[in-house]
Amino acid sequence: MLKPQTSPTRELVGLDGLWKFAVDTSVPASPWTATLPTQLEAAVPASYNDLFADAAIRDHVGWVWYQRSVRVPRGWAGERVFVRLDAATHEGVVYVDDTKVAEHVGGYTPFEADITDVVTAGGEFRLTIGVSNELTNITIPPGKVTVTDDGGRTQDYLHDFFNYAGLARSVWLYSAPAVRVSDITITTDLDGSTGIVGFDIETTGADSVNVTLRDAAGEVVATGDGIAGALRVQDVRLWQPGAAYLYTLTAQAIVAGDVVDEYSLPVGVRTIEVRGTEFLINGTPFYFTGFGRHEDSAIRGKGHDNAYLVHDFQLMDWIGANSFRTSHYPYAEEVMEFADRHGIVVIDEVGAVGLNLAMGGGIFGGQAAPTFSPETINDRTRETHAQAIRELIARDKNHPSVVMWSITNEPASNEDGAREYFEPLVSLTRELDPTRPVTFVNVMFSTFENDLIADLFDVICLNRYYGWYVDSGDLKTAERKLEAELLGWQEKFARPLIMTEYGADTVPGYHSIYDSPFTEEYQTSFLEMYHRVHDRIPAIVGEQVWNFADFQTKNGFARVDGNKKGVFTRDRKPKAAAHALRTRWTAPRDAD
Ligand code: GCB
């Protein structure tokens, strides 16, 4: 799905701002086809949960409604008109006046509706968006709604971040011609010093298509025509980690010799290859440094915010992080575009977190029930999961920053049914994008001895908490166990391993001269212990600390106002470990 943009043939109106807002207490929700009787206003983009001083809103389970009036620009007569939501978490329904125009399940990918037939250029309409935060055994991520003794409803879930909901990303109104460019797929390769930019373009009925590639200075470096082909760029400038370079590809849809639509896309030329235990970008071994992150900040919840975007990338640059994982769901498209422009490498993760009933809220204490069964994670869950993969790849396939797809975080990959569940999803991912490696993120309970799916993947990502959830406070034992386990993975699977999570909850300002969990010293020693081990295991091609910053979680005895494994606090102040990481990650790396 192409992101809306302005071009000589397209216009874009942002609908962000303050919307009328109401919580729907009727179950199931009644379709909203009138003016919302409410005094509340909610900011878009923002999760709604923390905007109000009202526990009933914060903890509401079910539908909420957003509403505003929108005027269609007068000049759009004769154009197609669309409303586009960058996300509605986790399910959305859109009404134009009294007409339902779109429904969508899945909280972190965009959807849109062609509303041309129900609006008029120059006219005003009432735009109402319903959003539900409910998670069940067939949603991605999964969860469970429980009716309490007093008839109330609570939402339980198996992941360790607060179930923020609402319109956390932008909403747009845009125009595009009836005959238009409807999709573009770019692939890139190298032939000596010549870059090859493959293109595959879909239109809604154009006679032909022209393609032009320009360099960063705007000079044309290659042209082509037809809906598919390959452009050759002599002496290409590569997109490199830490040194992004972007060309711009412009596709024009032609009808009877006239250009009827134009759409432009940034293109980074780079190659990715997994060879033996190496992960190569542009033929050079790459070592990932950085973080698992969250879209999370005070008040906004998961609301996208460009100030946080800029600041977070500045902090990643300061600390020497060359990469991150979009743990545990696709991030806002602005984040991906920023990574493209600034040469940050991304492991792009589907929102499939919590497919593991042995976990409770990301940590121990879940149920003993089997994860994969008709009553729990089942074939319908897999269909939702497949759709989430399709939508992620459709959205992010053209980002040079994305070097690998992660199709799940910490599933019960040691349990019966895991292979049957995941094998078709790995095949689907490869079919949708044969150019990028595929990985999954393995949980500590699934060892190299009992994991049932690791051989399906090109790269194995590992989350390990030796020294935290096990051997807490005993870094010596933790170091021995960590090394023994990593040697086991290396020996058995002989492919790249990335440590995608390792971290210790740390209360800023809490100190000790001993190995005392929760202190700033302990977080530093814990990370240093992992680094010693990483440096002894050749198959380890990266380390991403859990987490970039402290983040909010659901209530639980193991979380004091959220997860404190951040290297930065929730308001982005460095803990001591940030300085230690900076020392390691900004030093030149020995050639592997
Ligand atoms: C994990 C999960 C992550 C949690 C983290 C923790 O393994 O992937 O979502 O937040 O552990 O801190 O427990």
From TrEMBL:
Keywords: Glycosidase, Hydrolase. Residues 272-586 form the Glycoside hydrolase family 2 catalytic domain. Its EC number is 3.2.1.31. Residues 14-177 form the Glycosyl hydrolases family 2 sugar binding domain. Coiled coil: none annotated. The keyword Transferase does not apply. Gene3D superfamilies: Galactose-binding domain-like, Glycosidases, Immunoglobulins. The keyword NADP does not apply. InterPro entries: Beta-gal/glucu_dom_sf (IPR036156), Galactose-bd-like_sf (IPR008979), GH (IPR017853), Glyco_hydro_2 (IPR006101), Glyco_hydro_2_AS (IPR023232), Glyco_hydro_2_cat (IPR006103), Glyco_hydro_2_CS (IPR023230), Glyco_hydro_2_N (IPR006104). Residues 179-270 form the Glycoside hydrolase family 2 immunoglobulin-like beta-sandwich domain. SUPFAM superfamilies: (Trans)glycosidases, beta-Galactosidase/glucuronidase domain, Galactose-binding domain-like. Belongs to the glycosyl hydrolase 2 family. This is Beta-glucuronidase.
